[in-house]
Specification:
Number of helices of chain A: 8
Shape of chain A: globular
Order of helices and strands of chain A: HEHHEEHHHHH
Radius of gyration of chain A: 20 Å
Largest interface: A-B, 38 and 38 residues
Oligomer: homodimer
Distance between the termini of chain A: 40 Å
Chain lengths: 183, 183
DNA sequence: TTGCGCATGTAACCAGTTACATGATTTC
DNA sequence: GAAATCATGTAACTGGTTACATGCGCAA
């Protein structure tokens, strides 16, 4: 039931904001830095069809505007439920290591679906998981630094700094949400 | 000829350092934070077979150690040539946006294959491409900030900060290489 | 003798890439 | 009427995921 690709969830998130056609979605991916998804029709149209087959979106042809037929998609209640389930998954180590972008996507749409309180909880979980991961990474880097060529060492260092930057971001975002909830 | 996956190049890079078996490679992916590649046999063994079919690596069974047969792989001259070609590709915008990890992988093995001078050139190209990309991103964020919910805005902000952190890293790495070449 | 670590592999499934195809409408 | 843009779609190919299968050698 919830075996959707990340692209599928990105589409659900956008369709939760407003009904859109496949072409609209392509333009969004082409013009905004969201995710890094491809705007190719070979990715988006099949993904929309899959979502429709699973009952997560519904599409209808609009012919009113005189242009060529546009098939506009809406998210269904079932689709919204699936989207929320995806957003609610606990954050595990492997999400941090190999699916950070998916985590950020889950977060990006969280305000709309869950509101500030749960979004804040998500950020705290994210920060916690990050802070438990980074020390081991640093340790690994320190332990193996002398065996590695300079470029290898620097590449690893880049990864560590990447995680550290994300942790700083998460902490700033936490205070941003805390301020908002008090004010 | 050069239609290899990123995993294939990661394998080539590791095999350029020393001959290894599939199992060795799996252990490396499982125990070090390199790339974020899967250590699953379903990814690595087929990838090794493909490399072998294309003549980029060669494998031979070692039976000396009394354990079960180990197939150990070496990189071939053709494999090294392909690896260097991959590392030498110019850095384009899309590499920055959607394939940063691949760029970091190319860099990680560059010391061994090309030496300090060309590695430094790579870093300069990387930094240049990043600095040409970031202002537009910042501009986009600033232009659309008020239409977006807080979480969406922060998610975008995270992306921008990510690029900025990488740029700082690149600049520090450049000075590291410059120091090394003078000293 | 049971079970674990070493070691290699296969098969079904799924989704993204690339390239191609089609046709309507607007603009020059 | 030619070209650009809007708009949707398909098909071949490729490679990763997941799960399963196999078999050796060693230690408890």
């Amino acid at each position: 039931m919830n075996n959707d690709s990340v692209l599928g969830y990105a589409l659900l998130g956008l369709l939760h904001q407003q009904p859109l056609s496949g072409y609209d979605l392509r333009k969004i991916f082409a013009s905004t830095p969201i995710g890094g998804f491809s705007d190719s029709p070979g990715a988006i149209y099949p993904a929309l069809r899959r979502l429709q087959e699973r009952g997560l979106v519904r599409g209808e042809v609009q012919k009113s505007t005189g242009l060529r037929k546009r098939r506009v998609f809406w998210i269904t209640p079932k689709g919204l439920a699936s989207f929320k389930t995806w957003q609610s998954k606990p954050i595990v180590r492997d999400d941090i290591v190999r699916r950070v972008e998916e985590l950020l996507l889950r977060f990006a749409f969280m305000d709309q679906t869950f509101g500030a309180e749960r979004t804040l909880a998500f950020l705290r979980e994210f920060a916690k998981e990050l802070s438990s991961y980074i020390p081991g990474l640093r340790k690994h880097l320190h332990a193996h630094a002398n065996e590695m060529p300079l470029s290898g060492r620097l590449a690893l260092e880049s990864g560590v700094q990447d995680y550290e930057a994300r942790l700083r971001w998460a902490r700033r975002s936490i205070t941003a949400y805390e301020r908002r909830m008090k004010g």
